[in-house]
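Task: sequence in, structure out. Protein: Biopolymer transport protein ExbD/TolR.
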Amino acid sequence: KFAPEEVVVVDTPSSTSDIKLPESDIITISVDKTGRAFYAVGGQQTRQALLEKMAKIYKVNFTEAEKQQFATMESFGVPIGQLKSLLSLSPEERKKANQPGVPFQDSLNNELGAWIMQTRYSNPKVKIAIKGDNDADVPAIKGVIKTLQDRKVNRFNLITDMEVKPRNL
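Result:
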């Protein structure tokens, strides 16, 4: 199985943990070095159903074509109000588009929290992983963790690059 193409490059720190992430039923929240959050969840049907739920909450209407486009996107990093314009771009244009990140710093408009909760309502078995850039702003990572904890999500994985374990331990 190949790794999904990512919207933003995240250079992760290394660790010696050898816990493998599941192949499916996973939410990945990537935080780049500028503190932007990108959201990814596996499965086209899951993504399409998720978009429909979020559209109702935020009162945004998506066409069937836009829903199908969203279902094919591995990840995104825009507020839901900008999602229609992102979906109007070709996959190549999307990669180059300046995505400001999914909002999570403002407690009144924490869209990241809404995406997480709607995904968990759809699939209670889903696991959550945070992939933070090695040079990411610590307050941004803390903000993502606070978003999770405010929603009673206290179990999640931090994605790192593999490092060889020291033999002396």
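The chain has one domain: 31-162.
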